[in-house]
Every structure is written in structure tokens, then in C-alpha cells.
Design goal:
2 copies of one chain form a homodimer. By secondary structure, chain A is of the alpha/beta class. Chain A contains 11 helices and 17 strands. The longest helix of chain A is centred in the first third of the chain and has 15 residues.
Chain lengths: 347, 347
């Protein structure tokens, strides 16, 4: 059976005050479409697997937000982390749990806060990828064909000489500097790491046993409590013992049999205001405005994200970010967006 | 007896969204002192007359705001205009009413939304002015010694050759252009019209009979209802018949026996964001901020007025106005403040 695992525990601190620890980016309608990023993510996978095979792993503090935004998902499929331990422990938890009932499950692991423009193409890719990993020990990543020398993403380098749609991975690359990013773009064979992984649950288990036996041992020890009333209490006790480590670092950069599927479906991790700006419809003055009651006067190149009932007139602003949530307003220059964490710390 | 009449019916549209028709400038703590301009005005006159001789004339829609902000004033001293007719009908109403019980009253007429920095000097001037008009037919205006070539105020020209503190008025001057304002400043003998008038109630009555007999007739016809339960209904019916005319135009520019008292007590009409900016304490980057939870980062020369519980970080703004009230935010360039009415109309 196919299963979808959505990781929805991030805190989105770069989008303060739109995104806050109390309600991070994935729970927000950042694009002004009427759907939150989490809801868009689930919709994107419609038809890939039955709803009872959709899993959301999140922080215990976001349980109610997930229930509210995804009422169609069984509450027992919402797995709650008592603390943040990055993606590896999160994936191990859900994999160990699924495996217990479905020993031959194929899993798609997906972030909850990215954007895909061409959803039919996305579904085609995911279906094909699931066939590729089913009954095999291959790990498949989706690698987005780069369209600019982006320094904000990690890259996946494919081995030369592959044929067919899916290529073997040579190595994973950290976020490059601009020179390197330009080289990747012109050299070819480098792809943006979209953070989407497809693999059989047995492959996942083996990858953890080989590379992170400590994590494997923790979830082995929890086998008897899965699907019981004891589960949450046991997780709350044992999960914090996991190391804080990403799936990329724990598995991808070490395991063998890793493949990349070069794809092109209009993807963005929406990781910066700049990338959000790119994805929102602009007015004639190049302002990207999310918010029904915002009037731009002689303002250009701004990105504005405020609640629909928030009334504002913004005059004479060029290249600014204006964001409000819960009565907290930020105005800052777009070029200073990497300092937003510093700004938020001032309040 | 001395009486104080505070005119508090203005709508303050130039300070949107801080000031709105629902709660104009005089009812707002624009300086961040914890007191509204109306409260500061009443305090400024403390000791000039007993509290039962303090009158507030305002619009019927501001009755509750006045009661709330000035609980010490007898409710029957709050006179309510059913519609806006500028200052002349407002002054006639209160003068006719006071005269009926105190035929020899001396009145100080004052706006409710101006600023005076040197309150002891202000009181000295007002006391002396009241002595000057008591039992006489003289009309006294306060004329502020100009300290810059201001084009936003009307001017009073004194006759040459006066001795003593108080001078005869030669003429009233409309708001000048900058050349003329510079001339006034260097020539001397020109004073800013602060809109404060002192006169005996009989002088007021005569001035209306001579110059605006229509207004005099309207309030003559209402004599029998003053201080009765019928008063408000009668005012609601007859007041709208008054012409829409200022006291300057109706009386000051026509009457004789007008004097000016040149004064210097740190006055501002707070008529523009620029004048408000001048009066508020600035930080090291020349930002004038009213609001307890505003953080300025690399911003300069801004004026910010937001509620104390409003949290904001403003980064990289230079020479902007940032104002919020009732969830409505304005950001605009200081140099465009004369267009605020246009901006407000966009929502």
C-alpha cells in the first residue's frame, strides 16, 4: 500500500510575524488562495493513497491546528512529537508505526509548507516514483531542475551516464555560494533537493539500522505501544532521547541505492519572502499583496501579507515587506529579510 | 463671573487614521502623555473659573466621549450641536445661554485640540486678558509671537505705535504664502492667530447683532427653552438654520475694538503631522514615536502614533508617517501628509 507522510512540525521563523511559533507557515494561507500550505499539500496528493494512509507528523502543540485544517484525516493518523528533533526521528517514528501494520508499505515523505504549481505533473511523478521504489531497496528523491543559480537550496548531483527518467545520485550538496550555484546551473546534472523522498518501509528501516542504530533502537523499544492508549505517553518519554538530526544527514548522504528523479512542476520551498513574492500575483506596480483591504499608493515591488479584515493604506514604499498577524506588524526592506529573526527578537 | 468655553466639535480629518470622524483628534492622546488634547485643554485652564462655568460645545455624536473624558464637568454644561456650522453659531449658542443666567459674564473661547507648553505663562496671560475685557466692550485675541515663517496659520496684524502689553488690531490675515510669511516674520507686528478669544458676553451679543443678525435672531428665539427639557429638541430644529461661518469671518474681521495680546507660551495648533512631530520627544534617530510597543530599526525622522498595545517593528523607513487606530494602518511619506484625505478615501 502507498502511504503519504506529511511533516508539519516546522516553526517558520523567517516569516515572522505572518508565521509565529504558535501558528507557523504551514498552517497559514500564505498565497491568499483560501487554503493553507498544509491543506494545499494534502490536496496535491489526492488519489495517491486512501485517506486512512495519510499521516501527519507534527508537534504536540499543533494538534488542534492539524485537526481543524484537515478534518478528513483520522485523528489517530496525526502523530505528535513532544519536542523538535529535526526530520530523521520524525520519519523513523512514522515508518516504524506503519511497518507494524503494513510491512510492505511504500512511503512518500513530504514537507508541508512547499509550493507546487503543476499539480497533475506532480501526481504523475509521484505515481511513477512509487512504482520505482515498490518492492525494491531503492531510495528515490525528487530533484527539481534548477531555473536560476539559487543559493538557498541544497542540490543533488546525479551520476553521469544515466538513461531513462530516473538517475543514480552521486552526492548531496550543501547550499552553495553564488559562484558554485552558477556553475551547477550551467554544468547540468545538479538538481534542487525538494525534500521529498519515496521508499519502501523496509528500506527506511534498514537505512536507520545501518546509519542511525540509536534511533532504530528507540523505536524498536516502542513497538509494543503503537496503536495503544499508551503510545503518546511512551513517545513523550522516549522521543526526546533521539538525536536532533535531519534525514538528509542521517540517511541520504550515507546510504546507497539513492536515486533522483529530475522533475519540473513549478516548485518552491517558499523559504523566503523573496520566493513567496515570486509566487504571488503582482499588481501593475509589481506589488504582491495578500490581504483584501490593502491599498497601495505609489508603492512598488512590495510584498504584503495581512489578514483580509486588516485595513491599510501603504504609500510611497518601494521594495518593502509588510506583514501583520495577531496585531503584530513588521515593515522591513526586502533586502534585509534574512534579518527578520533579529527584528522579531526586538519585541 | 469668568466662563470657559471649549469648542470640541472638529473632525480632525488630516490625522487619519489616528483621528477619525468617530473619534477625532481632540479625544485622542496624540502626544502620548496619557491625557487627551481635550483633557489637557481643560487642565490648562484650571483655576481660571469654577468647574460649573466650564462649557464644552461639541457634536451630539461626541457627547459620550466628552462625558467619559471630562467626568468632572456637569453634564448640563455639555452643549450639543446637531450638525456642523463652524465656530460662529457654536459661540452664539453658548453665549446666549450663559448670558441668560450671568448677564455680565466674561468668556474665554478656546479650541480643544491645540497644545501649550508653558502652562503657567498661559494662565498668567488668560487672567490678565480676562481683566482687560471685564466690564468693557473690547474683544481680545491671543496672538502668538511667530518663530518661523509658518504658512499654515492665519496672522493678526497689530497697529503700530501701541504701548503696553496689549495692542489694537489693524487686520486679520489669511494663511500666507511662504514669501509673505517670511516678510511677516522679519517685519514684526504680525502674530499667529491662536483661535482664543476673550470678551464679555454683552460684547459678543452686540457683535452678532451688528454683524450676523440672522444668528442673533435664531438664539433670541430660543431664549425660553434654555435650561429646560425642551432645549435639545429646539436646538436640533433651529441650529441647522444657522449659516456655516467661522467666528473670524463673522465677527473678528468686521468688528471694532479688537485687541491682540502678543504671547509666547509654546503654542501649536497640532494641525499637521509635521507640527505634531515637532512636539513629541524624538529618539536618537529623530523618530517621534507614540506607542509603547514600537521598535525602530534603522529608521529615521519618522512619526509613529499607534495604540500602546500595538506591537510593531519598523525597519529601514526614513521620513514616514506610520499611524494606526481601530485596526486601520497608514504608512505614508511625511512630505505627502497633505494628501492623507485622499489616502483615507481609498478604503
Amino acid at each position: 500500500m502507498n502511504h503519504l507522510v506529511i511533516m508539519a512540525g516546522g516553526v517558520g521563523s523567517r516569516f515572522w510575524p505572518m508565521s509565529t511559533p504558535a501558528k507557523p507557515k504551514q498552517f497559514i494561507d500564505v498565497l491568499g488562495t483560501g487554503r493553507t500550505l498544509l491543506q494545499l499539500t494534502v490536496e496535491r496528493f489526492a488519489g495517491i493513497c486512501p485517506i486512512e494512509n495519510v499521516w501527519v507528523v507534527t508537534s504536540v502543540k499543533y494538534k488542534e491546528l492539524v485537526k481543524e485544517q484537515l478534518p478528513e484525516i483520522p485523528e489517530s493518523n496525526i502523530l505528535l512529537e513532544p519536542c523538535m528533533r529535526n526530520t530523521a526521528p520524525c520519519i523513523a517514528y512514522v515508518a516504524w508505526k506503519i511497518k507494524q501494520k503494513d510491512a510492505d508499505a511504500n512511503l512518500v515523505i513530504s514537507p508541508s509548507d512547499h509550493l507546487v504549481m503543476d499539480v497533475p505533473e506532480f501526481r504523475r511523478v509521484v505515481c511513477k516514483g512509487l512504482e520505482f521504489v515498490a518492492g525494491s531497496d531503492r531510495i528515490l528523491t525528487l530533484g527539481v531542475l534548477p531555473v536560476r543559480p539559487e543559493t538557498g537550496y541544497g542540490y543533488i548531483k546525479a551520476q553521469a551516464g544515466g538513461d531513462g527518467d530516473i538517475l543514480e545520485v552521486e552526492s548531496f550538496k550543501e547550499k552553495p555560494d553564488i559562484q558554485t550555484a552558477k556553475y551547477y546551473l550551467t554544468a547540468g546534472g545538479y538538481y534542487w533537493n525538494a525534500g521529498i523522498f519515496l521508499w519502501n518501509v523496509q528500506t527506511i528501516e534498514k537505512a536507520f539500522r545501518d546509519n542511525e542504530p540509536g534511533i532504530a533502537a528507540i523505536f524498536d523499544s516502542l513497538q509494543s505501544v503503537f496503536y495503544t492508549v499508551e503510545e503518546q505517553r511512551a513517545i513523550d518519554r522516549k522521543f526526546p532521547e533521539c538525536p536532533n538530526i535531519s534525514i538528509d544527514y542521517a540517511v541520504m548522504e550515507r546510504a546507497e541505492n539513492i536515486y533522483v528523479f529530475p522533475v519540473s512542476f513549478g516548485w518552491s520551498d517558499l523559504g523566503t519572502w523573496g520566493s513567496l513574492y515570486e509566487q504571488v500575483v503582482k499588481d501593475l506596480d509589481s506589488n504582491a499583496v495578500v490581504g483584501q483591504n490593502v491599498r497601495m499608493v505609489e508603492s512598488k515591488g512590495c510584498i504584503v501579507h495581512v489578514p483580509d479584515d486588516k485595513k491599510m493604506v501603504l504609500q510611497g514604499l518601494e521594495e518593502y515587506i509588510v506583514a501583520e498577524e495577531n496585531g503584530v506588524l513588521l515593515v522591513c526592506r526586502k533586502t534585509d529579510e534574512q534579518r527578520i529573526k533579529e527584528f522579531s527578537s526586538k519585541l
